[in-house]
Amino acid sequence: MLPNIQAFFDPATWTVSYVVYDQSRGKCAIIDPVLDYNPKSSRISTASADRLIAFVQNQHLTVDWILETHAHADHLSSAYYLKGKLGGQIAIGENIPAVQQTFKKLFNLGDEFVPNGHHFDHLFTDNETFRVGQLAGKALSVPGHTPADLAYQFEDAIFVGDTLFMPDVGSARADFPGGDARALYRSIKKLLSFPPETRLFMCHDYPPADREPAWETTVAAERTYNIHVHDGIDENAFIKMRTKRDATLDAPVLLLPSIQTNIRAGAMPPPEDNGVSYFKIPIR
User: Fold this and answer.
1) Which of 74, 103, 200, 243 could connect to 252 by a Cys-Cys bridge, CB 3.0–4.6 Å?
2) Listed residue (35, 20, 10) closest to 151, CA to CA
3) In which order are the strands placed within the sheet that holds 27-31?
């Protein structure tokens, strides 16, 4: 059976979150949910997550899974908040401990932070299958943007995370710690080996000025029109392009708070002795 899919676009971070659901069984999965964060005031709010909650409740759905494609660097995850409100298991790829270890060192996190992935309820292996009601899901390992990236397949739909963007935007950066442009190219080719009619759902869109945000395309459209990886662009050409382009990119605005939250499955750093949680900012 084909999945029901509801998208939620967050214009502040250009992020698309999804509810994938089996209406007949009243079961759903939430993919890449956003927690609102104002970097000027360092205030957290839950408007984006509450939109997801309202939809789930209005559709009379039970949450089986809260799925992260990776530890995002451009928005905070609301997975922890949503689990508290709706239940469900928070899941990510099995290589998340490598990402946690890298950022434990960068932020000099204390003994309380053990980088073994235990913050998440489940760590998916490549090609591991799971269910959402009658929907068959599969986790697909797509490293390159980070070592732990996953895509999630439900029948004819694949949620690609930050591996790939709309055809006129291209591909994800590969210069974060543990990123690898060669691995990214091979992950993209893995996704583009699916049948041409396979639907691909983006985690972000950064549209050019002449169109509105969009987040659904197909394997055929990507293979024909993607400006970075259309058919005919070989691995070495992609690596050269990606490396040159990445050298010009600024760090994401929410990089530091996002990573510190997302390696904890959306939970805030533990409060200090005054009851307040803090994000660390390394000075270089």
Assistant:
1) 74
2) 20
3) 4-10, 15-22, 27-31, 62-67, 89-93, 122-124
Helix, strand, or coil (residue 117): coil
Buried b (16+ CB within 10 A) or exposed e, 117-141: bebbeebbeeebebebbebebbbbb
* Model pLDDT for residues 53-69, shown as the tens digit of each residue: 999 999 999 999 999 99
User: Strand pairing partners for 21?
Assistant: 4, 28
The model's pLDDT over 153-195, given as tens digits with 9 standing for 90+, comes to 999 999 999 999 999 999 999 999 999 999 999 999 999 999 9
CA distance 48 to 83: 14
- Report CA-CA distances (Å) from 66 to 75, 121, 127, 190: 16, 10, 18, 24
- Per-residue pLDDT tens over the stretch 85-133: 999 999 999 999 999 999 999 999 999 999 999 999 999 999 999 999 9
Per the listing, tokens 């759903």 go with 28
**C-beta separation of 66 from 29 below 8 A:** yes
What is d(CA 105, CA 267) in angstroms, rounded to the nearest whole number?
19
pLDDT, residue 284, reads 80
| The total number of residues written for the chain in this structure | 284
Structural domains of the chain, ranges and CATH numbers in brackets? 4-260 (3.60.15.10)
Q: Could you tell me which residues are beta bridge partners of residue 37?
A: 44
